[in-house]
Amino acid sequence: MIKKENTYRIGRITKAHGLKGEVVFNFEDDIFDRVECPYLICEVDGILVPFFIEEYRFKNDSSALMKFEDIDSVEQAQRLLGSEVYFENKYIEEGAAEEVSLNYFIGFTLTDTDGHTIGRITGIDDQTENWLFEVETATSSVLIPAHDDFITAINHQNKTIEMNLPEGLLDL
User: Fold this and answer.
1) Helix and strand tally (H, E) in the chain?
2) When you count CB atoms within 10 A of the terminal residue's CB, does the N or C end of the chain come out lower?
């Protein structure tokens, strides 16, 4: 059984395409094209279900036409419409951590270099040139620059990121 905490969201299936079971997959992360994994995970009726990729082709820089094995008709494809699509973390941990988007880190816990918990990453603000972690602390929500210069360690198994933040940043 695939657990949601072992995956991260990479997009959504938005519509059927053609008559042979293809779907339009709007993605936020093209990790499926960069890391070897034979399937994507779709949330169907609240259950995470792996669908093996038969073939895909990019439509533009944020969507692809995806054909899954055993989905061979418009009717079968329509059952996937609106499904959130996830990628399994274990394929990233096997050597491709540098390939992930920042969305992968949603749910990770931020700590300082002394091991004290700062908070939990709840989102990514990518509206500016400098991306920010949206972090829920014990008392508030804060934005923290998601910059390599501040990140000192990443533990994928424990889902933690250690950061060395400038003095006073959390007080802003």
Assistant:
1) 3, 12
2) N
Name the architecture of domain 4-99: Beta Barrel (2.40)
Total Cβ atoms within 10 A of residue 48: 18
- Location of structure tokens 């779709």: 42
pLDDT by residue for the chain (172 residues), tens only, comes to 888 888 889 999 999 999 999 999 999 888 888 888 899 999 999 999 999 999 999 999 999 999 999 999 999 999 999 999 999 988 876 555 555 677 788 889 999 988 899 999 998 888 888 889 999 988 888 999 988 889 998 888 788 999 998 887 777 6
